[in-house]
Design goal:
Number of helices: 13
Radius of gyration: 19 Å
Shape: globular
Distance between the termini: 16 Å
Strand order of the largest sheet: 5-2-1-9-10-13-14
Number of strands: 14
Mean pLDDT: 97
CATH class of the largest domain: Alpha Beta
Low-confidence stretches: none
CATH superfamily of the largest domain: CofD-like domains
Largest sheet: 7 strands, parallel
Order of helices and strands: EHEEEHHHHEEEHEHEHHEEEHHEHEH
Helix content: 25-40%
Number of domains: 2
Bound molecules: ligand FO1
Structural class: alpha/beta
Amino acid sequence: MRIVALAGGIGGARFLRGLLAAVGPQDEITVIGNTGDDIHLYGLKVCPDLDTVMYTLGGGIHEEQGWGRTDETWSIKAEMKEYGVGPEWFGLGDRDFATHLVRSQMLTAGYTLSQVTEALCVRWKPGVRLLPMSDDRVETHVRITDEQGSRAIHFQEYWVRLHAAVDAEAIIPVGADTAKPAPGVLEAIAAADVILFPPSNPVVSIGTILAVPGIREAVAAAPAPVVGLSPIIGGAPVRGMADKVLAAVGVEATAEAVALNYGAALIDGWLVDTADEGSVAAVEAGGIACRAVPLLMTDVEATAEMARAALALAEQVRK
Ligand code: FO1
């Protein structure tokens, strides 16, 4: 079976680990990763979501944190601080720096982000084909109003420095309108047997991938069933601050509202947590098949069970 998954960072990566445990060696998984969270620091290109998927599936992730490398050290950050060079609020560890150095060196030499990602995966062997959504630069910005007035800031500044504590007035995927899907993205979607939306952030992760012209259209037109898993349980994000960015696009932070916002034109099936069983009927009234199953990714086996439920629902809604 050919499975395509659109993925953001921590939630997407953890779901993919469960998916890998649920499928067999004959199944091929292509992951289309969000690159809207990418940030340029110290002349280096940092791709948090691609790296989180790569490290998580490759066994190099800092498990408790969910991002960055295991057994990390922080000498470079400390040295930068001595020079008075920030940003102090963004934690790039020494081992992680090596990834950004290799990536940036290859990009400077003329390789595309897809080629660089493939090269990095030679080391990490994530067990999936990891594609960036685009080789073109896309950077999510968030419009806020604070004591400095109304301005747009980089998504990482909003997420990491401000902890999404200020209202997001708008989410702007800068560059998305002219970006092209990376090589292989549209082909993988068209050839998929199943398309999955992991419980990633529907606005700044899945939403940004879908904002690349051609990707939303390809998913909607794909012959494969499209099944998503709710990142919202009981009216709150399982992790992260998805509610803040949902508010910016006028969508309530409920499992039901997120499903209906994707809409029946895009997704065929939706899994909600058993805590949200009451929303099944409303999602189905919107033309989306819906089931309530446990959606807490407490360990790999519990996550594999979620993946099995998503694949089972895909079979039920297969056109
Ligand atoms: N998240 C944090 O909360 N604090 C950090 O300092 C931080 C640094 C960081 C460095 C590299 C990387 O790949 C990810 C990093 N993250 C950090 C995670 C990241 O900000 C977000 O969780 C994602 O972009 C959202 O998917």
